[in-house]
Amino acid sequence: MCSRVCKNCGGTDIDVDQARGDAVCMGCGSVLEDNVIVSEVQFMETGGGGSSAVGQFVAGDASGRNPTFGEGFYTGVGRESRAQTLQNGRRQINTLGHQLQLNQHCLDTAFNFYKMAVCKHLTRGRRVAHVVAACLYLVCRTEGTPHMLLDLSDLLQVNVYVLGRTFLILARELCINAPAIGTYHLPPILPVFLL
């Protein structure tokens, strides 16, 4: 029920249905409004605990321009996405790092490298698993663990050259000097004389 007046019959018994988006006169059955646009803004809670507006913004003056809510209105969307990216990266670093039997210090350092890569937009266009593996390998090189890039390649079932390329890009862009792989001193092969 609404306090509107029907233009056809003058009746005041008008049914407004927000779900259908129309207004109908109950006296003569005339449709007075069709596709009523709701003027209030509704928000929905997202999975990460944030909120987002429901529906589509339409300008009130029918100019076609979207209304603006100030500079800070959409900033939460990027932060929420970044938080999810970091959370996903931490989870994958922990999973892969535990398979390599790395200690918590190495996992934390790898996550710091991953955060730096996200801040410098080095994750765009690359698979998260490849960036995570490159960050873990950076830690292996800087901490001197006995792991090789081939170990990570085997765990992820990814071409070692693809991981190597990602590793080199991260090392260069993050300005991390990854030391060369240590050479192990093997005993010289002694000639065996057969008598």
Write up this protein.
By secondary structure, the chain is mainly alpha-helical. The protein contains five helices and five strands. Residues 2-33 form the TFIIB-type domain. GO terms for molecular function: RNA polymerase III general transcription initiation factor activity; RNA polymerase III type 3 promoter sequence-specific DNA binding; TBP-class protein binding; zinc ion binding. This is TFIIB-type domain-containing protein.
The SS-based structural class is mainly alpha
- The proportion of residues forming helix, as a percent range, comes to 40-55%
Number of strands: 5
Oligomer category: single chain
Number of DSSP helices?
5
What value does the Rg take, in angstroms? 31 Å
Strand-residue proportion: 5-15%
Reading the helices and strands in chain order gives EEEEEHHHHH
Overall pLDDT level: 77
Q: Based on CA inertia axes, which overall geometry fits? A: rod-shaped
Could you give a short account of the major beta sheet?
A: 3 strands, antiparallel
Distance between the termini: 113 Å
Major sheet strand order:
1-2-3
Enumerate the spans where pLDDT stays under 50 for 5 or more consecutive residues.
59-76, 183-195
Layout: helices, strands, pairs:
Layout lengths: L13 E4 L4 E4 L5 E4 L8 E3 L5 E3 L21 H25 L4 H16 L8 H16 L5 H8 L3 H14 L22
Antiparallel strand pairs: 1-2, 2-3, 4-5
Helix pairs in contact: 1-2, 1-3, 2-3, 3-4, 3-5
Please supply descriptive tags for the structure shown above:
single chain; 195 residues; mainly alpha; three-stranded antiparallel β-sheet; two-stranded antiparallel ribbon; 5 strands; 9% strand; rod-shaped; disordered C terminus
